[in-house]
Amino acid sequence: MKPWRELCVPHPDVLEGTFQQSEFAADITAVRHGRATHEYQDPAAFYQRTFITEGMGMLLTQVALRLNGKGGEPVVQLQTAFGGGKTHTVLAVYHLTTRNCPLSQLTGIPALLDRAGLMNVPKARTAVIDGNAHAPGQPWKHEDTEIRTLWGELAWQLGADDGLDMVRQADATGTSPGKETLRCLLERYAPCVVLVDELVAYVRQFPDGEMLTGGSYDSNMSFLQALTEAAKLVPTAMVLASLPESDVEAGSSRGVSALRAIEKTFGRVQALWKPVAAEEAFEIVRRRIFEQILDTSARDAVCREFVNAYAIEGAALPSEANEAPYFERLVNAYPIHPEVFDRLYQDWSTLHGFQRTRGILKLMARVVFRLWKDQNADLMIMPASLPLYDSGTRNELVYNLPPGWDAVIETDIDGARSEAAELDRLEPRLGALHAARRVARTIFLGSAPSSAGTTRNTSRGIDRGRVLIGCVQPGKPSTPFSNALNRLMYCLHYVNSTGETNDKSTRFWLDTRANLRREMEDRKGRFDDQTEVFPKLASVIRDMASGCEYVDALHVFTPHGDVPDDTMMRMVVLPPVVGYARKDKYPVFDVIYEFMRLNGAKPRYRANQLLFLVPDKTCISILLDNVRIALAWQSIMDDIHEGRLNVDRLQEGQAKKEADVTERVLPVGVRDCYQYLLCPGASVDDPGVVSMEVHQTQTHGTYLYEITRIIKNADLAILEWAPELLSDQLGRFYWKDGVNEVLASTVAEDFQKYPYLPRMRSPEVFIHTVLEGSKKRTCFGTATGKVGDTYENFGFGVPVTEFTDTLLLINPDVAAAYADMLARDAMESDEDYVSSWNPDGSVLTVGDRGGRPQRPEGDPPKRVKLFFGSADIHPGTAKMELISVADEIIAPMVLDPNAKVKVTVEISAEFPRPVADNLRRTVYENAKTLKFKNYSWE
Hints:
The protein has 38 helices and 24 strands. It is α/β, with parallel strands linked by helices. The chain folds into five domains: about 55-275, P-loop containing nucleotide triphosphate hydrolases (Rossmann fold, 3-Layer(aba) Sandwich), CATH 3.40.50.300; about 280-515, no CATH class; about 530-700, no CATH class; about 725-845, no CATH class; about 875-930, no CATH class. α33 (about 725-735) packs across α35. The longest helix is centred in the C-terminal third of the chain and has 25 residues, at about 650-675. The termini are far apart. Mean pLDDT is about 85; it is low at about 830-835 and about 840-855.
């Protein structure tokens, strides 16, 4: 596909930038006197660049019929908005009736005559009455003849001195010549055409009740009425008058009164002329600005690709973009996109003072010149293509807008340092397409008139589909532009919207009043990090990270002196002062090492009870900026509610929406920034060198879930540990260099101190592991102390019931050898010193007062399997005695996992007198609650 500049070349005056504003304003008097530019002066050149619209074609047909005496309207009134093509149409009639070339050279005229069934248009005497050419209080001359009135000017142009003689007296006295005189004048010089332009500008100058050389207000109004009546009576005479449409163009109140009177006069016999339609403007602008298209097949291919691209986008674009006629609109408007014309004709033309056709011609000529000079490579000239960075283009657009739009364009849209340009620089994906600037230009073109508050359009701005259709080209999907639109809503100072950014029905517009983002930008720099920004961020982190089952306490931005040095597992969230980066990781490591070494002014002992949640260094500035933005919006809302800030309802709604959005964005920013969980560790080979485990959170699941998942999967805080793993750690670090036992309490403390050791969730986890390991001969032996070579209360494979400070954990190999030695010695020791026997007859523990193993005397005891016992217990001391029985008799037997112990309590009570009801009831209910098998009173 070829860009527009390769298929459509502008006319030389546009291409070279030599066109002038006045060249787009047709001046019929200049044409009559031969002083106009070539394209206006020469009939063939004029028609070559003129597109005969439906309204102009109807008018020219009426002229041809009238001059041929075959009917036609005698009086036609042209009335459109300023710049709507009235004077241009008058010129078309002038060149048709006064041509100096064959009709065949007037482009479009032969086809028009064919449709009307006419062979020719006779040349006619043509009088031009231009209200701007003469002053009503000052005579003017033609050669040596003085002319004083409009009827004198009409007579002179039709018949020179002979014509003037017919109205000379009326011209001298300033009185209307009357219908009959004018009929004779028109009839003598028929076929004739009277072209009246800018009549209101002339008539409004007459003061009330005063006579000037040009007559009076009433005499001129009488002349106009007589002229229209006379033209109706002459079959080959015609009067064509152009009038302004709006009161603003009429000028003062005097001009408005004159306009109303003239409208009433022409309304008696007029035939209304149809103004230029928006679709016809395509061809008008194209013919005036561009040469003929060089390759129509290439043009059609480009337009077809646009239609295909719109079909892919589907419902994201306005519905008409997916309809079949849109292809024809693209072809007819080429190389300018129809959306440009729609916005100019539907929105900009409603501005008071905007010149409908002339203004659009001037604007597009400037746009095309700038784009051609900058070698614009767009496939068509779109709303997004408008070079608002060019002062000439900008001036053409903002001329009819209220003051202040230059600052809007410079600050937000298309200045060298505008927010849109800055976003394109910061985001390569957007900058590759200039997406932000193109979106901003489109919003400006579609919304500036409605935002100005001077139009008749009550809907402010344009919807999302209009924005996208103004930017999207074939091969460049809408996603970057949609993203740019979303981003711009949070960057631009003068943009507004009616709802959520992603909502298709949301409308966007620019305004000269800065939105509250400027106020927000000013405020966000006022917040202090330590007293306002960090506390706000800390509250968000607490809400997101609290509740982890592996952590006892969460310390957010807490100094090391305020993090207790105890047995609890603690997670420390470092403040966003220093962050982790793979290429610059040591600064944050130094901060963590300081936490591990110090607890305020004191050294820290339990350094292995700390985990650290740290920010990504590259995201810190973004996160802090988001926090400041949230604080700024909240302060704005507070001021609005307290009446300290006066805003309208739209701005209040915007502030509330922004405050809500920024609050929702903060958790996302926290998750993106605080994505590293650091855990101090050490090498087994060199425990003195502290290393750091770095774990990164993922995006799936909640933030708390991710933290919990990492701690669990990486065993950063162990909830349950196998005794075999404990035995392995004991053998690696404690049972070496001739040492075969270690205090369990020492190991427990070491696990809390040293990063090279496993990190237990709590001391209870270690205690549980020891108690479970004591049941197994594969892990370690236990003892409550050691005297010389003798272990006190030695056990190997025997459950430990209580974890004490004196509990020893013994190397399993040493414990096994020690147990075998005790078994052998027990066979030789005295029976009095046998403390207990294993069920298989081997000695479990043995010792004497000296603490050394002795051989028991006599044979080993018989292998007994049953025990029975009964005791009488005194009722007054039953509680203490029952406790003693449980501790001294029952508890030792229960230690054998294979023993089946059954305890039965039998109670018998006799009372000398009948038992009281309350006692009987109490005992009965308690026995029932304690689930006695048998209980009754007799």
